[in-house]
């Protein structure tokens, strides 16, 4: 098989940010085919062992399940790569000792060549191709492997960077949430309490006036200020969430100017998930009231195939675009930080559906 084409196929997967396992399987397959042998694998070195993170080959598939670990004690190609950081080959498993020989002898694999996958200057793992009894490993096998191992390193670094990006987004969302909670507490313990005391004091004072009308006007203003503060605090951190998503969405429904029908699973989830579902529902309901001219909105929160799924659908004018305002775009950060997905479908004249899906731990 043409090496350029094989490399290109894997490179496309890497560039697309495919799952590392998928990339490693493809790498194993293409590298084995380029060398004209029946099996290939990518391993990751962990301490004194190698963990199989990608593989190809019909026979090897049955004997070497993904995720399997084996000790590196037999002096085979992988052991050599691990010890020297250089490509290596091993020509006869029939004489191999240790766990490696025991694992591989029954598979009919006879010889292997392996090359290191180096990430940030250290040996992360290796790509190995293996020949069955009837096959021979070409003399330049190790050289052919080198370009594949560079792709493997890019895939590893990419997956790592992606993971770090997700973690940093999650940290940002958490910091913002902690800050909101702190503000909510300060409002509640500080400004709101003071307003309550001021209103009480003024009510006492009111009795001393012949004409209390001006005092009533002030009391009225103070009352409104108190109500606005309470609204603000509620938006900062939804107190109803402490009683679960059903209660919190119920509270949103009660305050909505458009009728809301809702069906919420009666289960508790990790706090950050519940907060995310709440904010998405809250924004989608606000949008439905503000932009949609809808007659009814439905909210469902269900567990489907191991994912927590929120759907908010209205029967309004449609035509919503994420990025058209500040609301929907801000939510996707929150959802994606939890490895979820946010989708808005909004055909004109039919209505808008906002769907958020979160994988459950
Ligand atoms: N349910 C909806 N029905 C119709 N239009 C919507 C709906 N939701 C959002 N939109 C449109 O999409 C835009 C983007 O929404 P959003 O990001 O929430 O911004 P905004 O801050 O304006 O609410 C809105 O400005 C509005 O024009
Ligand atoms: Mg909005």
TrEMBL record:
Histidine kinase/HSP90-like ATPase domain residues: 272-361
Domain of life (superkingdom): Bacteria
Reactions catalysed according to its record: ATP + protein L-histidine = ADP + protein N-phospho-L-histidine
Enzyme class at the top of the EC tree: transferase
Keywords: ATP-binding, Kinase, Nucleotide-binding, Phosphoprotein, Transferase, Two-component regulatory system
Matches recorded under Pfam families: GAF, HATPase_c, HisKA_3
GO molecular function: ATP binding; phosphorelay sensor kinase activity; protein dimerization activity
Gene Ontology CC annotation, any one: membrane
Domain named GAF: residues: 2-166
EC number, UniProt record: 2.7.13.3
Name of the protein this chain belongs to: histidine kinase
């Amino acid at each position: 098989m043409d090496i350029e084409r094989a490399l290109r196929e894997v490179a496309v997967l890497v560039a697309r940010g495919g799952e590392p396992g998928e990339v490693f399987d493809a790498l194993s397959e293409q590298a084995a085919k380029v060398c004209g042998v029946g099996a290939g694998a990518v391993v990751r070195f962990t301490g004194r062992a190698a963990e199989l993170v990608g593989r190809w080959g019909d026979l090897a598939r049955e004997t070497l399940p993904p995720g399997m670990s084996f000790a590196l004690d037999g002096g085979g190609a992988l052991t050599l790569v691990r010890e020297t950081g250089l490509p290596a080959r091993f020509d006869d498993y029939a004489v191999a000792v240790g766990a490696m020989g025991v694992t591989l002898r029954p598979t009919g694999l006879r010889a292997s060549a392996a090359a290191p996958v180096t990430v940030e200057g250290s040996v992360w793992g290796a790509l190995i191709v293996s020949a069955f009894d009837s096959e021979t490993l070409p003399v330049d096998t190790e050289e052919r492997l080198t370009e594949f191992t560079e792709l493997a390193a890019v895939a590893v670094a990419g997956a790592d960077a992606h993971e770090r990006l997700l973690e940093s987004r999650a940290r940002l969302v958490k910091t913002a949430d902690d800050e909101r909670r702190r503000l909510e507490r300060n409002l509640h313990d500080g400004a709101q309490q003071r307003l309550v005391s001021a209103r009480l004091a003024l009510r006492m004072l009111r009795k001393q006036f012949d004409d209390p009308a001006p005092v009533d006007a002030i009391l009225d203003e103070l009352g409104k200020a108190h109500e606005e503060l309470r609204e603000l605090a509620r938006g900062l951190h939804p107190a109803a969430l402490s009683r679960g998503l059903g209660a919190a969405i119920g509270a949103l429904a009660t305050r909505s100017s458009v009728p809301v029908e809702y069906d919420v699973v009666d289960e508790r989830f990790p706090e950050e998930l519940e907060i995310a579902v709440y904010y998405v529902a809250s924004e989608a309901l606000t949008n439905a009231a503000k932009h949609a001219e809808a007659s009814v909105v439905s909210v469902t929160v269900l567990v489907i195939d191991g994912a927590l799924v929120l759907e908010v659908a209205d029967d309004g004018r449609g035509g919503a675009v994420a990025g058209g305002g500040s609301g929907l775009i801000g939510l996707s950060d929150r959802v994606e930080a939890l490895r979820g997905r946010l989708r808005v479908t909004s055909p004109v004249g039919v209505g808008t559906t906002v769907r958020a899906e979160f994988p459950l731990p």
